[in-house]
Amino acid sequence: MPEPLALPSATPRHELPFLFTAQAQKEAFINEAFVRIDILLHPTFIAELAAPPENPEVGSTYLVASDATGAWEGKTGALAAWTIGGWVFVAPRPGMIVRDVASGQMLVHDDGWRGATAPPAPSGGETIDTECRAALSFLLDAMRSIGVIS
Length: 150
Fold this sequence. Notes:
Blueprint: H1 26-41, E1 44-45, E2 48-49, E3 61-64, E4 79-83, E5 86-90, E6 97-100, E7 106-109, E8 113-115, H2 130-145
Parallel strand pairs: 1-6, 2-3
Antiparallel strand pairs: 3-4, 4-5, 6-7, 7-8
């Protein structure tokens, strides 16, 4: 007799719940999927914290710091979003990009969250090319304004 087809209960990348035939309370699974999609569609976070804030607003999302405690213990690096039903955690995946609202910088996940570091502004030297320095300063300011560097 062949083995029955075993389907996973959620998608492999972001754990969006699947619906099954004759499943009870389908609305709970659909709503959970919508919450996760809402977090992932335009991922941003307010702050990186080690402990949940006392009175978060529904929809607010945080990046869980490495020394997490309380409800966030063991969720290092995850996005934690406060919903009507409590905390929902989205584990980071390689290549995932989020925006830090406080700094305006984009972070990429690759064995941890990292952002680009700005090169130093030109200074010193024997020959000073003011046009080149102005162009480099413009490029650095432009990269800061779109969150590439902080």
